[in-house]
Amino acid sequence: MLSRLVREHNQKQQVIRRNNEQLRKEATQAVGELTDCLADTLNERVSSIFKTQREIEAEARRLSAQSAKFSKQTKQWLNMLDGVNSALKELGDVQNWAEVIERDMREIAMTLEFVHKGE
């Protein structure tokens, strides 16, 4: 009876060990599959982030080029505006000169009229 109990106990222990080993293998396999799945997901997200980063860098380069072009064009417009302002200033100077000449000529004409009438 005691030997039968020992034998039954040993058999149960052996079944438990086999069951534990099987469970350990299944757990190891499940952890491996989970790790692979997580790594794949992480790789996809990292790849997506790098792609987005490259797109942002390309857009930043395009924006920088457009900003430089805009700045150059703005400088050209400012130079043109300075030229127009100078031309308008010169026209104002010419108009002022013409008004001074006209006033002087009227004074000369009035003086000549006065002299001519006085004779």
From TrEMBL:
What is this organism's lineage? Eukaryota, Fungi, Fungi incertae sedis, Mucoromycota, Glomeromycotina
Indicate the transmembrane segments per the record.
Answer: none
As for family, the record states: Belongs to the BLOC1S1 family.
Q: Tell me the protein's name.
A: Biogenesis of lysosome-related organelles complex 1 subunit 1
Q: Which InterPro entries match?
A: BLOC1S1
* Swiss-Prot/TrEMBL GO biological process terms: endosomal transport
Q: Which GO terms describe its cellular component?
A: BLOC-1 complex
One matching Pfam family is GCN5L1
Q: Which domain of life is it from?
A: Eukaryota
